[in-house]
């Protein structure tokens, strides 16, 4: 028996239309999983995926999504909380983008998607896992769930990594531990991964700086997180729960 197999598994992912969401979906499709992507924007490049448009910060929309999706697919085997607003620092002319310029509106918006959205999806869709007495929840955190952002990486851009991103990703690890403890009696396993950045033609100076912070001296390659995602979504990880798997080339150990 192939314990890594995801054939006939129905996997729901939030934010599957984004860059990392696409990486996750590719890994799952390789193992023949059925994918449901809940996002506000449909991916243009993703085939063989059922797309459902919804705002994950809206409990009303997610309850409606649950009713429709369970009617169509009958079951959910895995929930992947991936959606987040990943603010990418960019060069700002004649301005300073820093902590003090963070508006309350921005804080609320980013936390509502990255953290509240994960809470709501889990609250609503995990009811099916409980009824099944089996399931998996995978939360997508970040290397910034265990370390603080190094703002020196963005100084040449007059920019910074926002406080919301770090708070959200630390919160995802806390959510993982709570849910693993709470759902264990239902045979539901909950883990998170904390990946480092993937090289995607970022600013050259930024790449040079960040590579100096990583013992392996490079960012992750496309597809380099594929196997860990397959492992955590399959029966191969049947005795693993409540863990945050850090895959960052060693950055967080220094």
Total beta strands: 7
Q: How many helical elements?
A: 6
Through-space gap between termini = 40 Å
What portion of the residues fall into strands of 2 or more residues?
A: 5-15%
- Spatial order of strands in the largest sheet: 3-2-1-4-5-6-7
Mean pLDDT: 94
Task: Name the overall outline.
Answer: globular
Give a short account of the largest sheet.
7 strands, parallel
- Helical fraction equals 25-40%
Poorly predicted ranges (pLDDT <50, ≥5 residues)? Answer: none
Task: Using the CA coordinates, give the radius of gyration.
Answer: 18 Å
Q: Which class best fits the helix and strand makeup?
A: alpha/beta
Order of helices and strands: EHEEHEHEHEHHE
Task: Produce the secondary structure layout.
Layout: E1 10-14, H1 19-30, E2 34-39, E3 50-53, H2 59-73, E4 78-81, H3 104-132, E5 135-140, H4 163-183, E6 188-195, H5 204-211, H6 226-232, E7 244-247
Parallel strand pairs: 1-2, 1-4, 2-3, 4-5, 5-6, 6-7
3D structure, described in words:
By secondary structure, the protein is an alpha/beta fold. The protein has six helices and seven strands. Helix 2 runs parallel beside helix 3. It has a seven-stranded parallel β-sheet, with helices on both faces. The longest helix is centred in the middle third of the chain and has 29 residues, at 104-132. Helix 3 links the parallel strand 4 and strand 5.
């Amino acid at each position: 028996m192939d314990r890594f197999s995801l054939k006939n598994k129905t996997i729901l992912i939030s934010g599957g239309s984004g860059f990392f969401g696409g990486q996750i979906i590719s890994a799952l499709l390789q193992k023949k999983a059925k994918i449901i992507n809940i996002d506000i924007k449909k991916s243009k490049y993703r085939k063989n995926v059922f797309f459902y448009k919804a705002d994950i910060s809206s409990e009303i929309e997610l309850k409606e999504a649950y009713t429709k999706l369970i009617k169509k697919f009958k079951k959910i085997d895995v929930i992947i909380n991936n959606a987040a607003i990943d603010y990418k620092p960019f060069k700002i002319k004649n301005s300073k983008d820093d902590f003090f310029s963070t508006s309350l509106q921005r804080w609320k918006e980013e936390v509502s998607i990255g953290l509240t959205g994960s809470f709501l999806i889990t609250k609503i869709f995990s009811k099916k896992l409980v009824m099944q007495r089996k399931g998996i929840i995978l939360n997508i955190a970040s290397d910034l769930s265990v370390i603080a952002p190094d703002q020196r990486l963005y100084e040449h851009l007059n920019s910074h990594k926002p406080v919301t991103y770090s708070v959200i990703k630390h919160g995802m690890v806390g959510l993982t531990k709570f849910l693993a403890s709470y759902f264990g009696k239902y045979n539901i396993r909950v883990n998170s991964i904390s990946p480092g950045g993937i090289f995607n033609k970022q600013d050259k100076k930024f790449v040079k700086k960040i590579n100096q912070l990583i013992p392996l001296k490079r960012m992750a390659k496309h597809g380099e997180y594929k196997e860990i995602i397959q492992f955590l979504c399959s029966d191969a990880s049947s005795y693993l729960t409540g863990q945050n798997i850090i895959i960052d080339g060693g950055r967080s150990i220094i």
